[in-house]
Amino acid sequence: MARPTRWVTETSPGHSQWYIDRFRSMAADGADLGGEARLVDAMVAPRSRVLDAGCGPGRLGAVLDERGHVVVGVDADPELIAAAEADHPGPHWLVADLAELDLPAMGEPEPFAAAVLAGNVMVFLAPGTETDVLARVGAHVVPDGFVVTGFHTNRGLTLAAFDESVAAAGLRIEHRFATWDLRAWHDDADFAVTVLRHR
Question: What CATH number matches the domain at 33-198, 1.10.10.10, 3.60.10.10, 3.40.50.1970, 3.40.50.150?
Answer without folding.
Answer: 3.40.50.150
